[in-house]
Structure to design on (314 residues):
């Protein structure tokens, strides 16, 4: 069951457009936006910029796909620039059709979003071996370009083919059936969604280029019984070999073990960027954690230390 944020619902949300993208479908899966409430953006960076400037209340963007992995423009776009925090997420199963203008003969130039091209590489090699493959800003943008006569075929959601008046020439193009993309809503920092018991926290950490830096970082989570659900290393663009780590972990910053891990990361890393605690939407609850890292264990330990410092306990 999709989890809902507890803060005020944003009224205007920019999404990776144009109309007909998987991103739009995922946004609508969370509830029908009010009239004019969802605003198409030309790219992920454009959607994030609109949220940062206040032109919209939030941006809705793809973050990771079960077959192709992370969506780099989103991971990188959240790691740099004014802070944005994730407030909710959605999952959508993605499959693709080949959209063509009615009456099209040979498909010489076929386009889609790079993530979609990567997920249909095998199908294209088998069925359109001679076609030129062209990257597009999104799957729906590819459909729009085909409708405008600039390309012959779009690898896109069925909805986008219909939206741009294309004929569906082939279905089920995904090389790996059942692929799922995870989308996130990001907003300027404000009130956090309340903990639900099945939450996720996202942080990006910059650590000095030294032996064991990643191991040290992971140890802070492992030693507190915190499970990771995503780990990305991304170049900082300074020089070869310097990376930042973007991680999703189970739990909410309000949970003692997660808060304590973030304190440790703050001491350990050159920079820690908190990118939100929010309900997870995959319906999975947090893996059971040992008693030693329950909130009560942290409270007990703090009381004990306080007693030592006051000289009232031994
Ligand atoms: O182009 C779209 O329709 C998108 O929503 C983007 C996107 C992505 O970035 O991964 C979303 C899901 C699919 O994996 C392919 C493309």
């Amino acid at each position: 069951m999709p989890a809902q944020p507890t803060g005020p619902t944003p009224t205007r949300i920019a999404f990776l457009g144009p109309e007909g993208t998987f991103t739009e479908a995922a946004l609508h899966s969370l509830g029908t936006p009010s009239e004019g409430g969802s605003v198409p953006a030309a790219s992920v960076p454009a959607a994030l910029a609109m949220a940062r400037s206040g032109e919209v209340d939030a941006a809705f963007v793809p973050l990771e796909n079960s077959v192709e992995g992370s969506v780099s423009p989103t991971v990188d776009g959240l790691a740099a620039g004014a802070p944005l925090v994730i407030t909710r997420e959605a999952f959508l199963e993605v499959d693709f059709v080949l959209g063509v203008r009615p009456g099209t003969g040979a498909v010489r130039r076929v386009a889609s979003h790079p993530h979609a091209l990567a997920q249909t590489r095998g199908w294209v090699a088998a069925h359109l071996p001679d076609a030129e493959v062209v990257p597009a800003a999104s799957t729906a943008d590819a459909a729009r370009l085909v409708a405008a006569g600039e390309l012959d075929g779009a690898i896109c959601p069925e909805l986008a083919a219909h939206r741009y008046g294309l004929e569906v020439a082939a279905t089920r193009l995904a090389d790996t059936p059942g692929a799922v993309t995870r989308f996130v809503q990001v907003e300027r920092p404000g009130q956090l969604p309340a903990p639900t018991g099945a939450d996720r926290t996202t942080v990006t950490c910059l650590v000095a280029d030294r032996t064991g830096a990643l191991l040290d970082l992971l140890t802070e989570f492992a030693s507190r019984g915190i499970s990771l659900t995503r780990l990305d290393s991304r170049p900082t663009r300074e020089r070869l070999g310097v990376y930042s780590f973007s991680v999703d972990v189970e739990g909410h910053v309000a949970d003692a073990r997660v808060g304590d891990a973030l304190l440790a990361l703050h001491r350990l890393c050159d920079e820690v960027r908190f990118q939100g605690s929010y309900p997870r939407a995959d319906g999975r609850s947090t893996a059971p954690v040992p008693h030693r890292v329950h909130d009560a264990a942290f409270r007990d330990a703090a009381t004990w230390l306080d007693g030592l410092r006051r000289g009232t306990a031994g």
About this structure: The pocket of prephenic acid is lined by residues 16, 21-23, 62, 65, 71, 94, 113, 115-116, 138-140, 181 (CB under 6 Å). The first helix runs from residue 22 to 29. Confidence is low (pLDDT under 50) at residues 1-6. The domain at 97-171 is CATH 3.40.190.10 (D-Maltodextrin-Binding Protein; domain 2).
